[in-house]
């Protein structure tokens, strides 16, 4: 196939396409594309709401269509697209590439061997994406759930279609607000279960099929299929079955990963194979690789889940009704984040009204009752409406991923717009949340709140650079604009209620934790709940808080104490220590490699990233009793 044209309103996207396919025709709208090009196949990879109208437009132009999943948002739209394509003899395909991955192919090959199917289970757990390249907005959690939902649905339907006869029925459906779907699906005499979850860990994607003569387990994370063919009812079978399946898992995973590495596969597995099958059906007039029935049934189940989420959304919105911010309000940026949520809860408990500004609309069940949420990208500006009824701003938003441009935009630019906007609205109290990472290396003595900043701001990577330069910018703009700016530098945030180790402790690799340094080293961490309460308390005790303030636990825990917490929740965890005298030469080699492989770019000092500095916690220790007593300091 020859790629001849693309329609995209983004100049950046068009430029990227020209780099990939020199000479490709680029158009801003699909109408311009269809008017200028004679096309055989159109791939529709736009947001889901646009799939149906664009598909019908392409069919009208006489094109076979490939539509990225979800195919459409409603069964009515799906039926209309399929009917129009059928009337013109055109082929329709959707992004159901897992059907062409090796695990599905092997499972399909051995399915007759396990006899009559008695149970099918399709399971998918995943971690939501929180950051996108270039500062693009990401889908909120429930929309990400709907985005991946077709994969486990069409896998389940594929087996049910092969194993059962008659119509497919959705017998029951439960959708939790936290993002877990349970469904019971029947076709003829075969019933299958569907489980999709944002919460379950570890991340897994599998299809399990159990028959009267064995079982099959297709693993889409490791790209393997384990077979247990035979009744397996004898003592010998029960004894050797685990070893046989373990051997299949070991050899299969090794082979799959080696194959993927050697092929240097850049696309999703199964995608090229699906395209090939679709193009062949269009070229020869043979049936599409996906039947109209499978497309319709996949959309039907996904539509039911979407409706259930809508019902839950309405209930959650009613439960989280906001209170208007009219006076003594606090504006919080980053209020949907790890620290931000704790700040908001603490402010509400103190009787303050709260407005949260976020780049994307939070899911209704992510909202804190009584909080007003406003969607705005402060990296491009802060309108006067954001500050109505507000007397204090807590600026906790910052970029946490990506490269230098992302941190320039979402840390530095956002800070400047927020301070200038606050000044324009007459607000004089502004809390800038920075980081301990901005401080220079110490001399071995406890580091006080007024310790000098790191002189080489780019030496520890984009995150530290963004935090350091935005702190400098906040302090300078505060002086220039007459705003009282308090700089608060939280240590590494931890949640002792649901402990996850801070980065400076080391790195987890499966069930092995590589701890860096010495067990007696004390880490500058702060409990996220205490940090939120402290920042909220500051709004009522402004003159009593010095700036800058290093926000830490009043007594810094040792690395061993933190590891003990981690192991209590992870009893199978093995800990290995990487002493600093070993880390330092490794860091030198890493720095040299970066300079050779990335000339002209700042090299990150790994030893510096994992360095442990002693902190003077006397300042925060004096404030802690007042913070936790929920009364202003006197």
Structure commentary:
The chain is of the alpha/beta class and 634 residues long. The chain folds into four domains: 5-94, Rossmann fold, CATH 3.40.50; 97-264 and 286-311, Dihydrodipicolinate Reductase, domain 2, CATH 3.30.360; 321-490 and 524-555 and 615-629, Rossmann fold (3-Layer(aba) Sandwich); 509-520 and 557-614, no CATH class. It has 18 helices and 24 strands. The strands form six sheets. Strands 7-8-9-6-10-11-12 form a seven-stranded mixed sheet. Strands 15-14-13-16-17-18-23 form a seven-stranded parallel sheet, sandwiched between helices. A three-stranded parallel sheet has the order 3-4-5, with helices on both faces. The longest helix is centred in the middle third of the chain and has 29 residues, at 235-263. The protein starts with a strand and ends in a 5-residue tail after the last helix. The mean pLDDT is 91. It comes from Nitrospira defluvii. InterPro entries: Epimerase_deHydtase, Gfo/Idh/MocA-like_OxRdtase_N, Gfo/Idh/MocA_oxidoreduct, NAD(P)-bd_dom_sf. This is Oxidoreductase. Keywords: Oxidoreductase. Residues 330-497 form the NAD-dependent epimerase/dehydratase domain.
């Amino acid at each position: 196939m020859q790629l001849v044209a693309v329609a995209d309103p983004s100049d950046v996207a068009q430029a990227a396409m020209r780099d990939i396919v020199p000479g490709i025709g680029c158009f801003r709208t699909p109408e311009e594309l269809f008017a200028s090009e004679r096309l055989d196949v159109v791939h529709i990879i736009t947001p889901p709401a646009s799939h149906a109208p664009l598909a019908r437009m392409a069919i009208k132009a006489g094109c076979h269509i490939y539509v990225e999943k979800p195919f459409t948002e409603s069964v009515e739209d799906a039926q209309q697209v399929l009917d129009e394509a059928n009337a013109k003899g055109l082929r329709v395909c959707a992004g159901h590439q897992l059907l062409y991955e090796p695990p599905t192919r092997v499972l399909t090959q051995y399915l007759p061997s396990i006899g009559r199917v008695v149970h099918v289970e399709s399971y998918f757990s995943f971690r939501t994406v929180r950051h996108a390249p270039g500062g693009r907005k990401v889908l909120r959690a429930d929309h990400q759930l709907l985005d991946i939902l077709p994969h486990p649905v069409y896998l389940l339907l594929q087996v049910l279609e092969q194993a059962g006869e008659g119509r497919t029925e959705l017998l029951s459906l439960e959708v939790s607000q936290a993002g877990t779907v349970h469904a019971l699906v029947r076709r003829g005499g075969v019933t299958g279960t569907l489980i999709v979850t944002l919460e379950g860990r570890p991340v897994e994607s599998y299809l399990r099929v159990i028959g009267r003569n064995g079982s099959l387990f297709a693993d889409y994370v490791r790209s393997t299929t384990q077979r247990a063919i035979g009744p397996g009812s004898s003592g010998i079978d029960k004894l050797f079955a685990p070893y046989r399946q373990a051997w299949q898992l070991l050899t299969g995973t090794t082979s799959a990963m080696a194959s993927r590495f050697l092929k240097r596969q850049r696309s999703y597995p199964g995608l090229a194979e699906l395209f090939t099958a679709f193009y062949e059906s269009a070229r020869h007039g043979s049936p599409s690789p996906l039947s109209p029935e499978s497309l319709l049934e996949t959309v039907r189940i996904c539509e039911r889940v979407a409706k259930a989420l809508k019902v839950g959304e309405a209930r959650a919105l009613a439960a989280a009704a906001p209170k208007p911010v009219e006076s003594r309000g606090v504006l919080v940026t980053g209020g949907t984040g790890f620290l931000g949520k704790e700040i908001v809860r603490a402010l509400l408990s103190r009787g303050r009204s709260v407005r949260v500004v976020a780049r994307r609309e939070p899911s209704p069940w992510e909202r804190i009752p009584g909080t007003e949420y406003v969607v705005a990208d402060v990296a491009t500006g802060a309108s006067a409406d954001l500050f109505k009824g507000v007397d204090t701003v807590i600026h906790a938003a910052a970029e946490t991923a990506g490269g230098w441009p992302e941190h320039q935009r979402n840390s530095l630019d956002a800070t400047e717009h927020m301070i200038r906007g606050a000044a324009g609205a007459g607000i004089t109290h502004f809390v800038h949340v920075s980081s301990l990472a901005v401080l220079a290396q110490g001399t071995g003595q406890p580091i006080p709140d007024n310790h000098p900043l790191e002189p080489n701001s780019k030496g520890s990577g984009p995150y530290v650079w963004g935090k350091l330069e935005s702190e400098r910018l906040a302090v300078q703009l505060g002086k220039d604009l007459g705003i009282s700016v308090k700089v608060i530098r939280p240590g590494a945030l931890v949640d002792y209620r649901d402990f996850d180790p801070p980065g400076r402790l080391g790195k987890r690799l499966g069930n092995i934790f590589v701890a860096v340094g010495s067990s007696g080293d004390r880490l500058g961490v702060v409990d996220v709940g205490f940090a939120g309460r402290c920042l909220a308390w500051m709004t009522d005790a402004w003159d009593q808080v010095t700036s800058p303030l290093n926000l830490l636990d009043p007594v810094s825990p040792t690395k061993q104490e933190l590891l003990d917490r981690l192991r209590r929740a992870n009893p199978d965890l093995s800990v290995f220590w990487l002493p600093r005298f070993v880390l330092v030469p490794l860091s030198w080699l890493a720095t040299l490699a970066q300079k050779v492989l990335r000339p002209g770019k700042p090299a990150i000092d790994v030893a510096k990233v994992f360095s442990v500095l002693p902190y003077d916690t006397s300042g925060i220790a004096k404030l802690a009793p007042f913070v936790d007593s929920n009364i202003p300091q006197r």
